[in-house]
UniProtKB/TrEMBL annotation:
A single GO molecular function term of this UniProt record: nucleotidyltransferase activity
UniProt entry keywords in alphabetical sequence: Nucleotidyltransferase, Transferase
Source organism: Halopseudomonas pertucinogena
Record protein name field: Glycerol-3-phosphate cytidylyltransferase
Cytidyltransferase-like domain ranges (all copies): 5-124
Phylogenetic lineage: Bacteria, Pseudomonadati, Pseudomonadota, Gammaproteobacteria, Pseudomonadales
Amino acid sequence: AKTVITYGTFDMFHIGHLKLLRRLSEMGDRVIVAVSTDEFNELKGKKTLIPYDQRAAIVGAIDCVDLVIPEESWEQKVTDIQKYDVDIFAIGNDWKGEFDFLEKLCEVVYLPRTKNISTTDLKKSLTRF
Ligand code: C2G
């Protein structure tokens, strides 16, 4: 069984997130998603609207997602890849190059982002109402 893992905040879940997760399910037969906790998002300097437990529940409800785990640190990727016997680490190409150090543990894939949608833009469009 080929295991794929990705990491992210997945705030205000949108089509860009869904397309990414669907791409992962095409690459392997087990998809693990590490959802950033509220505390880790503070570390990332990222403000979220939706709390962790709801973001994790939504991601976990996606058909092609087999397991959701909390993302609590930058360092955990190395241990996660070993713990879950991961074959592929994949993430959007806004992170291109950032995780090449994982190549000694598994395949590293950067996927094109979906155009014209982001949580930041969604938040901005909400302020217009
Ligand atoms: N994404 C995408 N297209 C978009 C928006 C997001 O493909 N229009 C992808 C991102 O590239 C990422 C995933 O969806 O792979 C989740 O996006 P974010 O929640 O913004 O993830 P981020 O905060 O960048 O967290 O350790 C890694 C970090 O936790 C990644």
